[in-house]
Amino acid sequence: MELEGEIVNVMETWPLQLTVASAEKQIHVSLTLDTTVTKNGAEINASQLSPNQTVRIRGKQVASGGVIAAEIVVTNAT
């Protein structure tokens, strides 16, 4: 599944978890050791994710309605 939205919360737990507001609802997103995070075409550390960033996420939806992210792309990077 793919989703686009804005990060509204970063829970600094391990694994890192985000709350992302899409056009329809807020979705909880979990990262794994294999999740790739990119910004401006370059891979960045997941710790650089922060509220108000717009992201595109590709991953697997789980039974709880959340998503386990395989790839996160920061789309409002400057």
Summarize the structure.
With 78 residues, the protein is mainly β. The chain has a single domain (2-74), classed as OB fold (Dihydrolipoamide Acetyltransferase, E2P) (Beta Barrel), CATH 2.40.50. The chain contains no helices and seven strands.
What does this structure look like?
- With 78 residues, this protein is an all-beta fold.
- The chain has one domain (2-74): Beta Barrel (OB fold (Dihydrolipoamide Acetyltransferase, E2P)).
- The protein is built from no helices and seven strands.
- It has a five-stranded mixed barrel.
- A hairpin with a 5-residue loop joins strand 1 and strand 2.
- The chain is globular and about 30 Å long.
- The model has no long low-confidence stretch (mean pLDDT 94).
Number of H/I helices: 0
**% residues in beta strands:** over 45%
Low-confidence stretches: none
Task: Name the shape in a single word.
Answer: globular
Q: In this structure, how is the largest beta sheet organized?
A: 5 strands, mixed, barrel
Strand order of the largest sheet: 1-2-3-7-6
